[in-house]
């Protein structure tokens, strides 16, 4: 019983990371950001099965509550996937501290991070956390999900944006 309690506390602590809800005007569109968007459009970037699974579950839950479905955004997804890869490499989760500098053309941003064995378990953990649920049901327009699978777990970063069509500052492969 004591072991289960410690595991539960560790999982709860992991998932109860606070939201990074940034308000204000995002970075202005730059030539570099425009070039990154063009490269992404032609790069063949695709969401993975796990990323599509999480977005699908999110949009289904939002629709059931009468909220608009979120548009999937590859720019946000690419940022999320890069961060998920870093978290998986370290074997732990943390919020992307410089999100406001990496995402371009934003009005308001939010993020959730987590680790679980599979998509279904990850979504269930997000949903059971009131903080994560509030973020996921927020007044967003775009979502990007990044997932990295490693050592039997998926590491996830979901990024939400409210009004503009976001971009990012990364160069695409």
Structure notes:
The radius of gyration is 16 Å and the shape is globular. Helices cover 46% and strands 20% of the residues. It has 173 residues and is an alpha+beta fold. It has helices spanning 2-15, 31-42, 49-64, 74-90, 99-102, 119-128, 130-136; strands spanning 22-23, 71-72, 103-104, 108-116, 142-150, 153-161, 167-168. Residues 1-35 have low confidence and may be disordered. It has one domain (2-168): 3-Layer(aba) Sandwich (Pathogenesis-related Protein p14a).
Looking at the structure, what is the overall shape? Answer: globular
Taken in chain order, the helices and strands follow as HEHHEHHEEHHEEE
Q: What do the pLDDT scores average to?
A: 82
Any low-confidence stretches, pLDDT <50, length ≥5?
Answer: 1-35
Helix content: 40-55%
Task: Calculate the terminal CA-CA distance, rounded to whole Å.
Answer: 48 Å
CATH level 1 name: Alpha Beta
User: Could you name the CATH topology?
Assistant: Pathogenesis-related Protein p14a
Proper CATH architecture: 3-Layer(aba) Sandwich
Order of strands in the sheet with most strands: 1-4-6-5-2
Largest sheet: 5 strands, mixed
How many domains make up the coordinates? 1
Query: Using DSSP, what is the number of strands?
Result: 7
CATH superfamily: CAP
């Amino acid at each position: 019983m004591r072991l289960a309690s410690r595991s539960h506390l560790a999982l709860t602590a992991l998932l109860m990371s606070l939201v990074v809800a940034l308000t204000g005007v995002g970075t202005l569109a730059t030539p570099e950001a425009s070039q990154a968007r063009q490269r992404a459009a032609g790069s063949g970037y695709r969401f993975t099965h796990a990323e599509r699974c999480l977005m699908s579950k999110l949009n289904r839950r939002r629709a059931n509550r009468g909220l608009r479905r979120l548009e999937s955004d590859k720019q946000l997804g690419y940022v999320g996937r890069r961060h998920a890869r870093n978290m998986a490499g370290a074997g732990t989760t943390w919020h992307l501290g410089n999100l406001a500098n990496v995402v371009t053309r934003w009005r308001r941003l939010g993020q959730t991070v987590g680790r679980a064995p599979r998509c279904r378990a990850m979504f269930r953990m997000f949903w059971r956390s009131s903080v994560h649920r509030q973020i996921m049901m927020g007044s967003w327009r775009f979502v990007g999900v990044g997932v990295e699978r490693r050592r039997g777990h998926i590491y996830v970063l979901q990024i939400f944006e409210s009004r503009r069509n976001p971009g990012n500052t990364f160069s695409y492969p």
